[in-house]
Amino acid sequence: MSSPSRIPDGTPSPQDNARARTTLARKWSYRLLGAVAIPLGREDLDAELRIRLDALCSMLHEEPFVTASIEAAGADLATLGHLGRFGLRCTTEVLGKGLLALPEFQPVERYAERIALAMGALGAGFTAANAESVLAQQESMQRSLLKAVRDANWNLRESQARFDEVVTSSTNGVLIVDLEGRLLQVNAATGQILGRTSEELTGVPLLDLIEPTYVEVLRDAMADLAAGTTERFRQSQRLLRDDGESAPVTLAASLLRGADDQPMHFVVVIEDGTELALLQSELRRQSLHDVLTGLPNRQFFTTQLEIALRKADPEHGITVFHLDLDAFGMLRDSFGGRVVERYLQHVTGRLKTLLAGEKVMIARFGGDEFGVLLENTATTPGIDAIMKSINDDLVLEPTFVDGHGVSASMSAGVVHRPGTDSEPLDVLRSAERSLRRAKKGRRGQWELYHAGQDAEELRDDALAVEMPAAWENGEISVRYRPVVRLADGAVSGVEAEFHWDSPESGVLTHDRCAYLAEQTGLILPLGGWLLKVAGGQSAWWRQRGQLDRTLAVRLTAHQSSDADLVSRVVEVLDQIGVPADKLMISMPGGVLSVADAADNLAVLARMGVLTAIDDFGMGPLDFGLLASELPVRAVRVAPGLVASRSPYVAALLPLLREQGVAVAVEGIDSAEQAEWWRAAGADFATGDHFGVAQEPGQFLETLEPR
Which part of the chain is the PAS domain (predicted)? Predict the structure, then answer.
């Protein structure tokens, strides 16, 4: 019986030839990327080499067969990147063997000579083009060297003029001193420091301008400099002014040598000590304060927090607020940077006014985040009263900036009366964690730090950072649970889930694993791995006639928006062999408002993949997703609604069925629950009542009739 992929006379079909060429082009690309430097990614290089391979195959089929066009193809190959002899050798090895194995060049005896001649022509063309490229590079280098010499001569003259300009206009005193110690050149700044003109100072011995008690120190330093003992020195000095007063300065000197490495003269730079001290003081202030608002910055706040912790009143203690403006991004995007900066200055002023009666330090941590360190007394208002006054002031009394009425609430994480032995950074981290909890789905709220709650988050963080190693060590596996048709109890599909058997924390379920991996970004490689493993298992079952059911895979928000999601699914469909209509991909409903996620869903649906929405809450926004023409085949009811068995939810299920959307529920734990949802009109269900997630072999055993 003939193969369906061939034409009846035994000639390979176009599909056979295309697949064989694609495989050879990918092998060629893989070998080249491992041997030479090519400025293309793997996918781009695959496509480029496929085009060149198609052209080469066409040349081999031409009648009469000539090698001139193949030599041209070899020359063009040299433009692909820095291939060199390694790239040529790799190319001839791959193509020399690969072309002989292509179905279209069978029988081999008919095409062997052509392919051998083609490899020679390809190499000749490549070698000639490569040689021309090297000659062109050498010629370009010679031109560049000649230009560099001309530029160097020009730059020398220009640098001399620039040096003279810098010396003349510098605010520091600059002196050119000969080896005997006399001033050869003096700029205007030196005259201003000493109260004399540059002409009056020229020719004067440098040591005559130094206070007598400092002369010996400078003389010894310059002697060491002239002898080559030191390369430069810097010291505090006092110069004699024309009015008899002394000027505190910092003096730095170095020795300038000629082309023969012999000393020529000294270069001395004088910095006015008074101005430098003022500048250093200002720099210290700026390093500890925010430029926009003038408030202390995080570094200064942390230092003061450490002091306050040690000196806190034993009875009342301190309170630390980590404040954050809500909807700050919307303000910035709507009104621009100028309005936002002025609004931050307004917020700064309001915080100072509202807390004016307290012993308080207010800092700006950056962006829209502020810190408040409150040293409590018997009359200090409660945290709720403070937050209410802040939000009432900012929200109910908007300020006008450039004609825009602007207002925004503030959320806060609060640490109240931390122990005196607490570390400042630990207190700030606790306040920041509490702020994140306060902002979850809310605005204008505050959250008080609780040690137990913080410890739970720390455990989550620890698990999240341990997860990559656990995956590497094989602690994380893929397990499978049945998807059951509620109408008759038949298994209609299989859902793939994560399973982490942690030695320290015990078994972690799929949802827990997905949540932890989402926090660190591990979900992308880990989720791709689950898709590939589950796809391979599904194909294995199907090939052996053991199980031919739909494979369901749930994605997180991060996965749904992943730019590589479609290519990951294509790999499962094409390379692993899972039929598109046997794969169901579901995405959280909340992420489908993001364009990338919606586009991914639409592309998958066009490929024939079954698509679904997770966490469907039965609200107007959820039904709005269905009205937006997203290609959705099914929805999965939000877990919080499954146990409620709400008549409201049951009344809405027919609306979904009218739109041709199947309804699935997860977490069914009892026969009573399953019967309620069946009667309500749900189509499919998962849960421990129908079977827990198991390894592949155990999963099949549960499906066998008993």
Answer: 159-229
